[in-house]
Amino acid sequence: MTNPKIIFAAMVLYVSYAMPVAAEWIDGKIVVLQGLDKITARITTLTTAIDTPLRFGTLQLTVNRCAFRPPEEPPENVAFLTILDRGHDLSLAPKSVFTGWMFSSSPAVSAMEHPVYDITLLSCRAQ
Question: By the 8 A CB rule, do 12 and 3 touch?
Fold first, then answer.
């Protein structure tokens, strides 16, 4: 004869230990990006804080949020970016060229499409 409370407790223990637990994301405050100018083939490392606009060529980049995994988890950094192309004629309205999440481990999943510049996420840091 089995006790239903023991069976329930065993099921709770099994679920709590057997099921993988999603790791918590750590919010970052500093983002490190890599910019490539396809005309000159020059690579530039760009560092900026959250919600601080940054210029790279004719682009204006704003990182709205970034997060990263704890060190005991597989490395992954994510950032939500808004990228505008201001062009060389400042009298024209800027064009939105990218709005979305970028992933450091898979840059091709969500890449910015621009004829002159490439932007990729390198890392997200707490400080």
Answer: no
DSSP string, 97-108: EEEEEEESS-TT
Task: Output phi, psi for 96, to 5 deg.
Answer: -80, 125
* Phi, psi for 82 (deg, rounded to 5): -120, 120
What's the chain's length in residues?
127
Reduced to 3 states (helix: H, G, I; strand: E, B; else coil), residue 80 is: strand
User: How much is the pTM?
Assistant: 0.77
Beta bridge partners of 77: 68
List the structure tokens of 86. 């201001």
Q: Residue 73 carries which side chain, given as an amino acid letter?
A: E
User: How far is it, in rounded angstroms, from Cα 48 to Cα 121?
Assistant: 12
C-alpha count within 13 angstroms, C-beta hemisphere, residue 127: 0
pLDDT, tens only, 5-35 = 776 666 655 655 555 556 699 999 999 999 9
Name the H helices within the chain. 4-18
Residue tagged 């057997």 (tokens): 18
Cα–chain-centroid distance for residue 83? 13
